[in-house]
Design goal:
mainly alpha, Helix Hairpins, two-stranded antiparallel ribbon
Amino acid sequence: MQKVTVTRMELLAKKEQIELASQGLELLKQKRAALLRELMRIADRVMARSDALQETAVTARLALARAEVRAGTAAVRSAAMAARGELQLEIRSANVMGVRVPDIEQKRVSRSVLGRGYAICGTAVTIDEAAAAFEAEIDCLIELARSQLRLEPLTREIQRTSRRANALEHIVLPRLIEERNYIEMALDERERADHFRFKRVKRMRQKGRRDEHE
């Protein structure tokens, strides 16, 4: 224990520090609990969207296989070349439970038949179905990535909050309580010693008066 000043003012200061540290610890525990609830909520969403992505991926592959069988591989490749384009995504910053997390701007990949770039006439319906299925798969992939990006910052914040709470609970508060108890004990001992000296002086004075009378 570090050297502390044994005074009433110091005792009051230690008690105030203990109160503030206790309040801070409670707030950190509440924050950690809220962050954990949010993390679990997002984790559930990630699992659900991961399952949805697997389903849409299977659907897209089946649709592609049907298109190749009915329209031919050459027609499918031609339509794919015509429909090819760039997908621009913007990543912004969002606030989740007081934590800054990256957020992908949600842009729907799904397009109308006219927006895919290939000629409507002469294009098999199965090709449209395959294109729609793959667009749906990309939409699911973006939604999954959007949720996954939030997990890591929240996990880091939970770890940081836990470290601060543990430091308060297991290091700061025990030290402050030990120092408070030491000051209280020292003050009590000092008060008893002062009281003993006071009584001793009082007895000596009383004895001196009796001797004078004799």
